[in-house]
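Re: weekly structure request thread

Next one in the queue (88 aa):
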Amino acid sequence: MTKAVGERNEVECSFGTGKRIYRTNNIRVKLPETAECWTGMCYFVKNVMKFHRELLFEFWLNLWTDAIEGIETAVLHLWLFINIVDTN
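Done, posted below.
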């Protein structure tokens, strides 16, 4: 029961966000079919933007991870080089 309530709250939050950001509560069209299409497109765009945001986040996360690994490798090589030079 609690899980169902949580899922319902998440869905209602999503519609609330859509009303506030995409103004889906302020659609002014003459035909009901057009209103349904307009509302559907608003939520479609919202989902595309969410996907795009998550994809961009993953891209930057992977980019930073690769950069940090590269820096760690360079520092390790520099440390080894300094130790080899000091022993000679």
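The chain has two helices and no strands. The chain has a mean pLDDT of 78.
Next request, please.
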